[in-house]
Structures are given as C-alpha cells and as structure tokens.
TrEMBL record:
Domain of life: Bacteria
Organism ancestry: Bacteria, Bacillati, Bacillota, Bacilli, Bacillales
Name of the protein in its database record: Glycosyltransferase
Key words, A-Z: Glycosyltransferase, Transferase
UniProt source species: Brevibacillus thermoruber
Glycosyltransferase subfamily 4-like N-terminal domain sequence ranges: 15-174
Amino acid sequence: MSKLRVLHVIGGGEFGGAEQHILNLVTSLPQEAVDVAVVCFYNSLFADELRKAGVSVIPLDRFGRFDVRLLKALRETFRRFQPDIVHTHGVKANFFSRLAVQGTGPVLVTTVHSHLRYDYVHPLAYAAVTLMERSTRRWNRHFVAISGALADILRQEGVPDDRISVIYNGMDLAPYRQTHRRDEDRKRLRAEWNIPDEAFLFSTVARFVPVKGLPLLVDAFARLARDHGAEDVRLVMVGDGPERALLETKVREHRLEDRVRFAGFRQDIPACLHACDAFVHSSLYEGLGYTLIEAMASEVPVIASNVGGVKEFVKDRETGLTVEPGDVERLTRAMQELRQSPDLRETLVRNALRTVEDTFTIERMAERTLALYRRLV
C-alpha cells in the first residue's frame, strides 16, 4: 500500500485540546504508512512542541488575522507538499483551507472539536463564524467528531450521516499512570502552592473562558467552605485566560484568598493532578472533556457537568459524579459527598480508569484515523 501524505492545518495560537489532539495523533501514526506535516497560522508554543517531537511544521504566521494573502500561501503550500489528505481544525483553518483546496486534488477532512455556539459568545462573532463554517462545508469530503454529541450536532445542521465518523480523542496515558511519582508530586506542588499536606484539595484544569463555568465552581467552593464547616478544603485552578481577573475578584469577594490558588498555565498537568484529591469540571458545554480523561487516568475522582460528550464516559456514581450545568447547590453537595466518602472515591477511580484504558488510548485513535484516511483516498 502506498504511503499517504497528510497535511494538518490549524491556527495553533493556543495549546488546548485541539492542539494536544493533533500532537498525539501525528506522533502516533506509523511513519512507514504516513508522511505528515502541520501548518500553523501562529508560530507559538504549539509549533515548538511539534518540532520537539520531530514533526515538520509549516508556519504561516506572517499574515493578519483574516489576510487574503493567507489563501495564496495555503495554495502554494498544498502545491508543494502534494497532500493526499488535508485535515483541518478550527473555523479559520477550515474556511481558508476549503477555499484553497479547490481544484488541487486532496481529500478534505475536518475534525470538529467543539460547539461553535459556546466558543463564540458574542452574537455577531457567532453569526460570522457560523456563516464561514456552513457556507464552505460542501467542499468537505468528511467530518470527524470527537464525540457522539458533536456528531449529533453535525447531523442536526444537515451533514449526512455517511460523511461523519466519531473518533474519540486519544491520549498518552503513561505520564498520568506514573503512580510511583504521586507522593513526590503531591509533596512538591503542595509546598509550591502553600497547601497543607492534610488539606482536601479540589482542582480544575481549564482555559479561563465563559463556557468553562468557572465562576460557578468558585461559588460552589465558597458554599462548601462556608456552609459545611469544611475547614480543610482547598481549591487550585490551573490555567489562564480572559476570565482570570473576574475569578480573582470573585475569590476576594468570598474572602477565599487563603483557600484558593491560581496556578497559571502549566505543562506539568500530570503532576498537578497527582497533587490533588478530586477534580471538578463545571463547564456549560463540552465537546468531549479532555481534562476529565486526564484526571480519570491519574486516578483522581471526578465531578463533571452532565453535558455534551461528557455524558458518554462520565456515568453518575459509576465513573464520576455528574451535575447539571449551572446547578451550584448540587455541585456543592457533590463536592461535600466526595470529600466525605473514601469508599465512593475508590469505586469511582477504579471504574473510571477502566473506561479510559478501554476507550481513550492514542493507539485506538491513530488506528481508526488511519483507517479513515485509507478509506477516503
């Protein structure tokens, strides 16, 4: 069988779930079967991480946000690389790649990582990106949804079922399974964050943006600390983003400065999770929930919003505790229950780890993606 040439296209200005997905995928596809490169519109941290992993990066960062010259640069890149598959991620990459690919021959595939309605909260921005996305979808051969929930949205928006595949994001479980390092990570990071060893530490890892529902988490934690006499509880929020100032203000209003830590953007997420006793996910919507999978792989019990793709692997009282989005009172009760019940935590951890190991491995994701590429070509 001839070797496939695959070109991924993404903005790459952040390092979130989509970027981690690409990094995992392109480093796991068999080199004897696929030649792969990644086009990035921003020559930033993500591009650096790809290079460290030995992946060819083609930066197109010399253009403005919606610079028409980007279209010409993409066409030239496609002409030089001669891909069999152009695989796009994100509205900007989807839009420009679909225009650029016309008449050049490669099969166009798009992975849908999230729901646009929650990515773009301003009505005008949402209207603009929706027009960009839907007006160009007819040029796509196929769509990959990272959860059944996102596949359902594509069907509701008119994409035929035979042009959709559900392929769950896979992750390298090894860093999260380093249980021999758990005590060391716990001691080191709690010292860094000035958190007592005996404290029960809740954590979250997220971009600080509205869809993640982080103000609700702060409110729930405040209720737990105030109304349940939970003197031993602490919260660490790992990440950064435009809502950080709002969250810091809310923490001050609740007088929780001594209980809540802002750890900032970090790349040692496995160690951060090993330092914690429970993980709380408060999103209003989630295409899949990458950080939940990471916590489950780290044997940290999870509380999760019952939304989107999360419903497909966080089962209430089986692999985690689930809470309807926006329900601060129920979120508080779930945090209190998890804190007070070691037996429940043990049951959830055991079932969650089995689910992750059966469903969310890089090997399974790479195998299914390569099979799709071959079928389409």
